[in-house]
Amino acid sequence: MSLSFQRLGEGNLKEIQTLEALCFPGEEWTMKMIQTHLEFHVAFGIGDSETQCYALVCETPWEVEIFRIATIPNFRKLGLAKQLLEKLFKEFPKKDFFLEVKESNEPAIKLYLSAGFVELERRKKYYPDGSTAVLMKRNPIE
User: Which residue ranges does the record assign to the N-acetyltransferase domain (predicted)?
Assistant: First the structure.
């Protein structure tokens, strides 16, 4: 399967909102949140004819924080998120990467560990539902 990696912008606003609803039902970002993110930060997607996996990221001069990364349900367990992470690492080769993930999201934690992230700390009762966040970091590969 030949996948395209692309930067997503304000022209993809409705598409990102649809992806959010599919990937995070009940916890999806609002249209205003996505729009604000795209005004100040960046998004990337990977897929064949349409986006199947996406990431909302914040780039600073010294690091990249992944705010959201998700694969739509019908395309999960195909390695798309790992491929997207690898593309992001190539896009920003000299930067540290940070993210946080719910402690209960074991598949995501396994993915991040396999992609070179390490756990930095845990933040108890971090999320609105009271769950713990795992803060993770990946250093650039020299």
Answer: 3-141
Q: Rounded distance, CA 98 to CA 64, Å?
A: 6
Contact 138, 124 (CB under 8 A): no
Number of H helices, E strands in the chain: 4, 7
Among 121, 34, 96, 119, which Cα is nearest to 70's? 34
Query: CB of 43 within 8 A of CB of 58?
Result: no
How many domains, in total, are found in the chain? Answer: 1
- pTM of the complete model: 0.92
- Give me the CATH number covering residue 118: 3.40.630.30
Full domain range(s) for residue 72 = 4-138
Q: How many CB atoms lie within 10 A of CB 92?
A: 15
Please state the three-class secondary structure of 31-73 as a single string: HHHHHHHHHHCEEEEEECCCEEEEEEEEECCCEEEEEEEEECH
Sheet containing 4-8, strands listed edge to edge, beginning at the edge strand earlier in sequence: 4-8, 42-47, 51-59, 63-71, 96-102, 133-138, 118-123
- Residues 99-130 have pLDDT tens digits of 999 999 999 999 999 999 999 999 999 988 89
